[in-house]
Write the structure tokens for this entry.
Amino acid sequence: MSECIFCKIVAKEVEAKIVHEDPLCVAFSDVKPQAPVHVLVVPRKHVASVNDLLPEDEPMVGHLVLVAQQIALQRGIAGNGYRLVLNCGPMGGQSVDHLHLHLLGGRSMGWPPG
Ligand code: 5GP
Ligand code: ZN
């Protein structure tokens, strides 16, 4: 059995507030939100990080972005704007080794990030 926490959420072995699911991905609220809207969009397939993506994953990655776009619309943050983040590796701030797209919004995002 996978020890990956996001694989467990995808398999519904661990609880999460799921906001979207389809054959390619699952989206759920971040347990430690950094903004009023903080949703993680994760592929059902375990891919450890951006470094591990294969050419065949290209449609899946595009799909994650379009799902985030739809959730932003539904949550009413599309007009004011939001941030999509893909952290990769330790220096990129990645703490869970299962690819995930952060959707952050509902407050003004600073730049550059800390
Ligand atoms: P990273 O730092 O890897 O880019 O982001 C991982 C995110 O996953 C963090 O924002 C963290 O709060 C979130 N997270 C970690 N474990 C869990 C969990 O068990 N459930 C949920 N919903 N979010 C989690
Ligand atoms: Zn996984």
